[in-house]
Fold these 2 entries.
Entry 1:
Amino acid sequence: MSNLADASLVVMALACVVAVVALIPVLIEMRRAVARAERMINAVQGDLPSLLADLRVLVTKLDRTADALAALGTAVDNLNNVVDGATRKTRQVEGWARQKLLGNARTLVANAAGVAAVAREGVGWIVRPNGGRPRRQ
């Protein structure tokens, strides 16, 4: 039995040696990966404060831009109200002017018709014998 036990121990020892030899490259690669991860984390930690400062500046600028756009929107609304009011007033003035001009035009036409009638009668008096009076017989 001693031969069998010795053989078993030798096989087990060889298995352990093979396992350790197989694990050595894995452990070496794991160590390299951890080292790379550590370098990457250090680089990010070095750049992170400046990136955060830049981000804060950008957010502040965006806040100011949003405030300016809100003020601009209010100004555009106010301008729209002024333009609407001016449009209404212009239409009112247009209607008033149209009424006045049409009324004045009617008066002018009536006056012109009266002048034409007077002129016709005057010309008739001049052209007719006896100044347009009936003749006496």
Note: The chain has one domain: 2-132.
Entry 2:
Amino acid sequence: MQTFFRVAAIFFGLGIIGSLMDGDFHPLILVVAVICAYFGWMHEFTKKEVNEEQRNQGISKANEALKPPSERFSQAQKHALVCSLYVIAAGDDEVHPNELEYISKVVNVLEYWDFDEAKIVSNILENREMIIEIISGFNDYQRNYLMYCMDGVIKADGVIKEIELQYADSIIIQAGLNIEQFQKIVLKR
């Protein structure tokens, strides 16, 4: 099949040269020649065999990708995520109602029903290292989710405050996450 397209590409290529020499160029011939060249040289017609283990692995990855956030985090991870958002929101010594509303939306999406503001504050003060340790163990999806949530809480009150960015940067750096990636997320929106 590739041979057919290669021969056709050469044939139509010569036709283009001939039509240019005659001054009677047809763009359709160029399009056909490019398509034939693509299928003749660039496109591979080979099929890759996939064994059952690879197929099952693909299915499990697809199922994992379809899971809602509430099923992708353990209770401890949900708690660490919410605590980190609260630290950022309280960074300017006040939690704006819009920031608290945003955190509540995240809590609902995560289905983290243990949310209690007083409990969160005391836990942040007592278990800061454990929270950072849990965050540092996040997988790629969880890290990205955390960064987008941090971005959301920073912007929830309508003003990006430097102190809130510093708290977010500090959490990300201490947890060993990619600070450049977070800064791109914040600047993108």
Note: DSSP finds eleven helices and no strands in the chain.
